[in-house]
Write a structure and sequence with these properties.
The chain is α/β, with parallel strands linked by helices and about 325 residues long. The protein contains 11 helices and 12 strands. The longest helix has 20 residues.
Protein backbone atom coordinates (compact mmCIF):
# COMPACT_ATOMS: atom_id res chain seq x y z
CA UNK A 1 0.00 0.00 0.00
CA UNK A 2 1.20 3.51 -0.83
CA UNK A 3 2.27 5.51 2.22
CA UNK A 4 0.93 8.97 3.05
CA UNK A 5 2.12 11.44 5.65
CA UNK A 6 0.24 14.11 7.60
CA UNK A 7 1.96 17.31 8.71
CA UNK A 8 0.42 19.42 11.50
CA UNK A 9 1.61 23.00 10.88
CA UNK A 10 -1.08 25.16 12.43
CA UNK A 11 -1.78 25.70 16.14
CA UNK A 12 -4.35 28.46 15.81
CA UNK A 13 -7.13 26.00 16.48
CA UNK A 14 -9.79 28.08 18.20
CA UNK A 15 -9.33 26.63 21.68
CA UNK A 16 -7.75 27.99 24.90
CA UNK A 17 -4.10 27.22 25.46
CA UNK A 18 -4.90 24.63 28.13
CA UNK A 19 -6.85 22.65 25.51
CA UNK A 20 -4.41 23.12 22.63
CA UNK A 21 -2.44 19.92 23.07
CA UNK A 22 -5.61 17.83 23.31
CA UNK A 23 -6.81 19.35 20.04
CA UNK A 24 -3.50 18.55 18.33
CA UNK A 25 -3.70 15.00 19.68
CA UNK A 26 -7.19 14.69 18.22
CA UNK A 27 -5.87 15.67 14.78
CA UNK A 28 -2.88 13.31 15.06
CA UNK A 29 -4.87 10.31 16.31
CA UNK A 30 -7.51 10.87 13.64
CA UNK A 31 -4.76 10.97 11.03
CA UNK A 32 -3.23 7.74 12.26
CA UNK A 33 -6.57 5.94 12.54
CA UNK A 34 -7.61 7.04 9.04
CA UNK A 35 -4.49 5.54 7.50
CA UNK A 36 -1.70 8.13 7.45
CA UNK A 37 1.61 6.30 7.89
CA UNK A 38 3.57 9.21 9.33
CA UNK A 39 2.95 12.35 11.40
CA UNK A 40 5.12 15.45 11.06
CA UNK A 41 5.48 18.84 12.70
CA UNK A 42 7.56 21.84 11.73
CA UNK A 43 10.74 22.72 13.57
CA UNK A 44 10.00 26.41 13.90
CA UNK A 45 9.83 28.60 16.97
CA UNK A 46 7.76 31.35 15.33
CA UNK A 47 4.73 30.55 13.21
CA UNK A 48 5.36 31.09 9.51
CA UNK A 49 3.99 34.18 7.72
CA UNK A 50 1.52 32.16 5.63
CA UNK A 51 -0.18 30.98 8.83
CA UNK A 52 -0.22 34.32 10.57
CA UNK A 53 3.38 34.92 11.57
CA UNK A 54 5.06 35.31 14.93
CA UNK A 55 1.95 36.55 16.73
CA UNK A 56 0.29 33.14 16.29
CA UNK A 57 1.00 30.12 18.55
CA UNK A 58 3.80 27.69 17.73
CA UNK A 59 4.64 24.60 19.79
CA UNK A 60 8.25 23.40 20.00
CA UNK A 61 8.53 20.41 17.71
CA UNK A 62 10.32 17.75 19.72
CA UNK A 63 8.43 18.38 22.94
CA UNK A 64 5.24 17.98 20.92
CA UNK A 65 6.47 14.80 19.19
CA UNK A 66 7.27 13.24 22.56
CA UNK A 67 3.68 13.89 23.64
CA UNK A 68 2.30 12.51 20.39
CA UNK A 69 4.50 9.41 20.73
CA UNK A 70 2.69 8.59 23.96
CA UNK A 71 -0.75 9.05 22.36
CA UNK A 72 -0.22 7.20 19.05
CA UNK A 73 0.87 3.67 18.27
CA UNK A 74 1.67 3.09 14.57
CA UNK A 75 2.60 6.21 12.63
CA UNK A 76 6.19 7.34 12.24
CA UNK A 77 7.04 10.66 13.91
CA UNK A 78 9.39 13.42 12.80
CA UNK A 79 9.97 17.04 11.90
CA UNK A 80 9.89 18.51 8.42
CA UNK A 81 12.57 19.49 9.09
CA UNK A 82 14.91 20.16 12.00
CA UNK A 83 16.96 23.30 11.42
CA UNK A 84 20.63 22.46 11.86
CA UNK A 85 21.26 25.87 13.44
CA UNK A 86 18.98 25.37 16.45
CA UNK A 87 20.67 22.51 18.33
CA UNK A 88 24.02 20.81 18.70
CA UNK A 89 23.82 17.70 16.48
CA UNK A 90 24.87 15.34 19.26
CA UNK A 91 21.91 16.65 21.25
CA UNK A 92 19.70 16.11 18.18
CA UNK A 93 20.86 12.49 18.03
CA UNK A 94 20.00 12.08 21.72
CA UNK A 95 16.58 13.70 21.25
CA UNK A 96 15.74 11.48 18.28
CA UNK A 97 16.91 8.39 20.12
CA UNK A 98 14.72 9.30 23.08
CA UNK A 99 11.78 9.80 20.71
CA UNK A 100 12.51 6.40 19.18
CA UNK A 101 12.41 4.76 22.61
CA UNK A 102 9.20 6.54 23.64
CA UNK A 103 7.51 5.64 20.36
CA UNK A 104 8.83 2.05 20.28
CA UNK A 105 10.87 2.55 17.14
CA UNK A 106 8.86 5.11 15.14
CA UNK A 107 11.21 8.11 15.07
CA UNK A 108 12.55 9.69 11.87
CA UNK A 109 15.23 12.39 11.83
CA UNK A 110 14.17 15.03 9.34
CA UNK A 111 16.89 17.66 9.04
CA UNK A 112 17.86 20.56 6.80
CA UNK A 113 19.99 23.68 6.57
CA UNK A 114 17.37 26.04 8.14
CA UNK A 115 16.05 29.17 6.48
CA UNK A 116 13.70 31.28 8.61
CA UNK A 117 16.01 34.17 9.45
CA UNK A 118 13.30 36.11 11.33
CA UNK A 119 13.14 33.64 14.20
CA UNK A 120 16.93 33.35 14.30
CA UNK A 121 17.22 37.11 14.79
CA UNK A 122 14.32 37.29 17.23
CA UNK A 123 15.53 34.48 19.47
CA UNK A 124 19.27 35.03 19.19
CA UNK A 125 20.31 32.06 17.07
CA UNK A 126 23.20 32.57 14.69
CA UNK A 127 22.16 32.52 11.04
CA UNK A 128 25.34 31.97 9.04
CA UNK A 129 25.50 32.11 5.24
CA UNK A 130 24.03 29.25 3.23
CA UNK A 131 27.39 27.59 2.55
CA UNK A 132 28.21 27.38 6.24
CA UNK A 133 24.74 26.09 7.09
CA UNK A 134 25.16 23.32 4.50
CA UNK A 135 28.64 22.52 5.84
CA UNK A 136 27.12 22.25 9.30
CA UNK A 137 24.37 20.02 7.92
CA UNK A 138 26.93 17.64 6.42
CA UNK A 139 28.76 17.34 9.73
CA UNK A 140 25.51 16.99 11.67
CA UNK A 141 24.16 14.04 9.69
CA UNK A 142 27.49 12.22 10.05
CA UNK A 143 27.42 12.71 13.82
CA UNK A 144 23.80 11.61 14.11
CA UNK A 145 24.37 8.50 11.99
CA UNK A 146 27.40 7.58 14.06
CA UNK A 147 25.55 8.02 17.33
CA UNK A 148 22.65 5.92 16.03
CA UNK A 149 24.85 3.03 14.88
CA UNK A 150 28.14 3.03 16.82
CA UNK A 151 28.84 2.38 20.48
CA UNK A 152 31.25 5.24 21.20
CA UNK A 153 31.91 7.27 18.04
CA UNK A 154 34.30 10.19 17.68
CA UNK A 155 34.15 12.89 15.01
CA UNK A 156 36.19 16.03 14.45
CA UNK A 157 34.74 18.59 12.07
CA UNK A 158 35.13 22.29 11.52
CA UNK A 159 31.97 23.16 13.44
CA UNK A 160 31.11 20.11 15.56
CA UNK A 161 32.97 17.38 17.37
CA UNK A 162 32.23 14.39 19.57
CA UNK A 163 34.66 12.20 21.48
CA UNK A 164 33.66 8.62 22.31
CA UNK A 165 30.08 9.79 22.52
CA UNK A 166 27.68 7.61 24.49
CA UNK A 167 24.06 7.33 23.41
CA UNK A 168 22.20 5.09 25.84
CA UNK A 169 19.65 3.66 25.59
CA UNK A 170 20.26 2.75 21.97
CA UNK A 171 17.63 3.45 19.28
CA UNK A 172 15.07 0.67 19.02
CA UNK A 173 14.79 0.70 15.24
CA UNK A 174 17.42 -1.59 13.66
CA UNK A 175 20.07 0.57 12.04
CA UNK A 176 18.80 3.62 13.87
CA UNK A 177 16.10 6.11 12.91
CA UNK A 178 16.03 6.92 9.19
CA UNK A 179 17.61 10.23 8.22
CA UNK A 180 15.55 12.43 5.90
CA UNK A 181 17.18 15.52 4.40
CA UNK A 182 14.74 18.20 3.30
CA UNK A 183 15.39 20.73 0.57
CA UNK A 184 15.85 20.95 -3.15
CA UNK A 185 19.19 22.68 -3.59
CA UNK A 186 20.65 20.97 -6.63
CA UNK A 187 24.37 21.43 -6.15
CA UNK A 188 24.68 20.70 -2.46
CA UNK A 189 21.51 19.59 -0.66
CA UNK A 190 20.56 16.82 -3.07
CA UNK A 191 24.16 15.67 -3.17
CA UNK A 192 24.09 15.38 0.64
CA UNK A 193 20.95 13.25 0.25
CA UNK A 194 22.81 10.95 -2.15
CA UNK A 195 25.77 10.70 0.21
CA UNK A 196 24.13 10.35 3.60
CA UNK A 197 20.33 10.15 3.69
CA UNK A 198 17.73 7.40 3.76
CA UNK A 199 14.97 9.72 2.57
CA UNK A 200 14.59 12.89 0.57
CA UNK A 201 11.88 15.52 0.87
CA UNK A 202 11.22 18.00 -1.92
CA UNK A 203 8.42 20.42 -2.71
CA UNK A 204 6.98 22.28 -5.66
CA UNK A 205 4.90 21.50 -8.72
CA UNK A 206 5.28 18.22 -10.55
CA UNK A 207 7.72 19.50 -13.17
CA UNK A 208 9.93 20.75 -10.34
CA UNK A 209 9.64 17.44 -8.51
CA UNK A 210 10.60 15.43 -11.60
CA UNK A 211 13.59 17.65 -12.19
CA UNK A 212 14.78 17.44 -8.57
CA UNK A 213 14.54 13.65 -8.63
CA UNK A 214 16.52 13.55 -11.88
CA UNK A 215 19.21 15.64 -10.20
CA UNK A 216 19.18 13.32 -7.21
CA UNK A 217 19.63 10.28 -9.44
CA UNK A 218 22.65 11.92 -11.08
CA UNK A 219 24.22 12.63 -7.70
CA UNK A 220 23.60 9.01 -6.72
CA UNK A 221 25.41 7.87 -9.85
CA UNK A 222 28.31 10.20 -9.03
CA UNK A 223 28.75 8.82 -5.50
CA UNK A 224 27.99 5.17 -6.36
CA UNK A 225 24.63 5.03 -4.58
CA UNK A 226 21.55 3.15 -5.76
CA UNK A 227 18.75 5.77 -5.85
CA UNK A 228 16.28 3.00 -5.04
CA UNK A 229 17.76 3.00 -1.53
CA UNK A 230 16.38 6.51 -0.92
CA UNK A 231 12.69 6.99 -0.17
CA UNK A 232 11.26 10.03 -1.96
CA UNK A 233 8.73 12.25 -0.20
CA UNK A 234 7.05 15.51 -1.12
CA UNK A 235 5.43 18.02 1.21
CA UNK A 236 2.46 20.00 -0.05
CA UNK A 237 -0.72 21.61 1.23
CA UNK A 238 -4.09 19.95 0.63
CA UNK A 239 -7.41 21.77 0.58
CA UNK A 240 -10.52 19.60 0.47
CA UNK A 241 -13.64 20.92 -1.29
CA UNK A 242 -17.19 19.62 -1.31
CA UNK A 243 -17.78 20.80 -4.89
CA UNK A 244 -15.85 21.81 -7.98
CA UNK A 245 -17.10 25.37 -7.53
CA UNK A 246 -15.74 25.47 -3.98
CA UNK A 247 -12.42 24.10 -5.24
CA UNK A 248 -12.23 26.90 -7.82
CA UNK A 249 -13.00 29.48 -5.14
CA UNK A 250 -10.28 28.05 -2.88
CA UNK A 251 -7.77 28.08 -5.71
CA UNK A 252 -8.59 31.69 -6.56
CA UNK A 253 -8.38 32.77 -2.93
CA UNK A 254 -5.02 31.09 -2.40
CA UNK A 255 -3.63 32.56 -5.60
CA UNK A 256 -4.52 36.02 -4.35
CA UNK A 257 -2.99 35.40 -0.92
CA UNK A 258 0.12 33.38 -1.75
CA UNK A 259 0.60 33.48 -5.50
CA UNK A 260 0.31 31.04 -8.37
CA UNK A 261 3.60 29.29 -7.56
CA UNK A 262 2.29 28.25 -4.15
CA UNK A 263 -1.00 27.06 -5.62
CA UNK A 264 0.82 24.99 -8.24
CA UNK A 265 2.31 22.96 -5.40
CA UNK A 266 -1.03 22.40 -3.66
CA UNK A 267 -3.61 19.64 -3.96
CA UNK A 268 -7.05 21.27 -4.18
CA UNK A 269 -10.37 19.70 -5.02
CA UNK A 270 -13.20 17.31 -4.47
CA UNK A 271 -12.58 13.65 -3.71
CA UNK A 272 -12.27 12.72 -7.39
CA UNK A 273 -10.04 15.69 -8.13
CA UNK A 274 -7.79 14.90 -5.19
CA UNK A 275 -7.44 11.29 -6.29
CA UNK A 276 -6.39 12.39 -9.78
CA UNK A 277 -3.88 14.91 -8.43
CA UNK A 278 -2.38 12.42 -5.98
CA UNK A 279 -2.05 9.84 -8.76
CA UNK A 280 -0.02 12.41 -10.69
CA UNK A 281 2.23 13.02 -7.67
CA UNK A 282 2.91 9.30 -7.38
CA UNK A 283 3.51 9.13 -11.12
CA UNK A 284 6.17 11.82 -10.79
CA UNK A 285 8.23 9.47 -8.62
CA UNK A 286 7.13 10.33 -5.08
CA UNK A 287 6.80 7.30 -2.84
CA UNK A 288 5.26 9.01 0.19
CA UNK A 289 3.29 12.21 -0.40
CA UNK A 290 3.09 14.24 2.79
CA UNK A 291 0.21 16.68 3.14
CA UNK A 292 -0.63 19.43 5.54
CA UNK A 293 -4.26 20.44 5.85
CA UNK A 294 -3.69 23.85 7.42
CA UNK A 295 -7.29 24.69 8.33
CA UNK A 296 -8.89 21.24 8.47
CA UNK A 297 -10.75 19.88 11.47
CA UNK A 298 -10.48 16.23 12.56
CA UNK A 299 -13.49 15.23 10.46
CA UNK A 300 -11.83 16.44 7.25
CA UNK A 301 -8.49 14.91 8.22
CA UNK A 302 -10.25 11.58 8.67
CA UNK A 303 -12.07 11.87 5.34
CA UNK A 304 -8.86 12.64 3.48
CA UNK A 305 -6.89 9.86 5.17
CA UNK A 306 -9.55 7.27 4.39
CA UNK A 307 -9.87 8.51 0.82
CA UNK A 308 -6.15 8.27 0.12
CA UNK A 309 -5.63 4.88 1.72
CA UNK A 310 -8.72 3.38 0.09
CA UNK A 311 -7.84 4.60 -3.39
CA UNK A 312 -4.14 3.76 -3.37
CA UNK A 313 -4.03 0.49 -1.45
Amino acid sequence: MTRFGLQLPNFTLGVPDDQLFDRVVELAVTGEESGFSSLWVMDHLYQLPALGGADQPMLEGYTLLGGLAARTSRAELGTLVTGVTYRNPALVAKIITTLDVISRGRAVLGIGAAWHDIEHVGLGFEFPPAKERLDRLEEAVQICRAMFTEEAPSFEGRYYRIEEARNLPRPLRPGGPPILIGGGGERRTLRLVAQYADRCNVSGDLDTVRHKLDVLRQHCADVGRDPADIMTTRLGSLFFADSAAQADETRSMLTGLAGAEFVDGCTIGTEDQIVDQVAAILGAGIQEPIFNLPFADPEVVGRVGKLLTSQFA
